Amino acid sequence: MGKTRFDANWLQKQDPNGSLYESYIIFNERSLAAGEVYCKICNRRKVTFANRGIASLHDHAKTSKHKDLANIYSSNQQLRLSSSSKVEVIPSRGNRDVSYEPQLSTQSTQPTMRLHVTDGSTLEKEVVWIIHSVMKYASFNSAGKDSKILKLIAPNDLNGFCLYRQKMTDMVNHAIGPYFRDLFLKDVRGEYYSLLFDETEGNNKQKELEVTVKYFSCHLDKVRFFRLESTFLGKATADILLGKIMRTLENAQLPLQNLVMMSRDGPKVNQSLERKINHKLIGERGFQLVSTGSCPAHIIHNAIKYALKEFGIEVSELAKVVYFYFDVPARWEDFVNNSKKKPKKFVKFVETRWVMLGNAAKVLMSNIDELYVLKSKLTHGTKKNLTYHEEAIVRILSMRGMKSMIQFVIDVCNDAEILIQYLESNEFILFRIHEKVKCFMTCWLAKIYDVDKIENVFTEKAIQSSHCKKVASVILPSAVCKFNDDEKVLTLLKEGLIKHVQTLISYLLANNIPHNFYYLFSFLKPSNIFLLIQRQK
To answer: Which of 205, 256, 467, 475 is the most exposed place for a label (fewest CB within 10 A)?
Structure first.
């Protein structure tokens, strides 16, 4: 049985509500080939005509959702688009005929696109609610229900108030978004700024270039950032990326001379792009971009990874195994029912973010007694062949001092996470970065090194084994010691602590942390400047 073909004469017919199909039915060649059209009123909802022809369109028009949205769509209270240079006042309910004409384009001789609405007070309320929804990351799909609830709360004050998904999308894309974009661009022009760019694949499977600008606003006295543009890419060569970025800066009217830094990934094409931009900057202003090396956050993540390989890697293995083992709903339900207290849901741990292991380890520690009960059941149960996850749980929890090891990983990762949050903060606090990084490293070095020799580690950029304290004098965190009083276990923990800290600090020093650039920024602090002047005297 063949499919029904689309007939263009359907568009001239009326639906059961008295509207012409051509007023809201849209389509393209691909949709017609698939036997589908879209309803513009219902947020481009698909309507399949391949089996029943125009009867499918009739049935869609009869649905309650389509009728409600059709009434909203035809309401005189809604936002209109006009290509005329004159804006007509459309009569509205009551005596509140107001016309708004925010002009979208002033650089064209053609008739300008204008937005106008007939009720100014209603528009203000709708804009406030849209901005609130955007700031709370609320879904636009809930706009229709929100409008009904708000009308029930204040029917007299919200007469004419009406929002739905497509209207909110249009308002954000064509009115509110451009307004705030203009405010940002006016603020950043004349300031020094940094660019952050990344190539990613969108929902349409096409490669996109996202360009974001970050700068310190003298007007707001804080660091600000916002997305400039998204452009589609075919090939992503350095020349193509350079052309796209330069065009983005030209559209935003941002001078290249004010570019301070660029944040990028590590592929060769991005390195080539940075060299090309440096070449242009040297020709225009005489010096290139400021370079601070690799991202400190990634270096800290990797430092934790290599340190855990020396001591504590079993905690990461346990976190992954337990998460996937209880990802089966039936197992989790049995675990909850057999626990004396309600256990916390296990957290997924991603290996590329090693500092986040601390969050997974906290959940492990919270559920550790229940996990030991599970281990006992698996060991002494009737089940002969254990699964991979069950064998791993039994093996890891059978290790001596496992509780202390989990607590140790929590302590290290917590300190590192605080440091990363500080580095990723949008506040203008660069002058404190050097002392924060140094404080983190000193805190752990002091547990195995002589206090008076720690400064040598930073000046020499290396750890000398002769500076290590003896095992007996190694300082274990108090939270780690409370789980064990066995001297052998404490000795193993101290040995592991030495290996862990040595690897952690050595990796940070090898990757130039604390960086000399941050040391220079530390002199932005007035007290340090005065100290520097006194030393020079």
So the answer is: 205
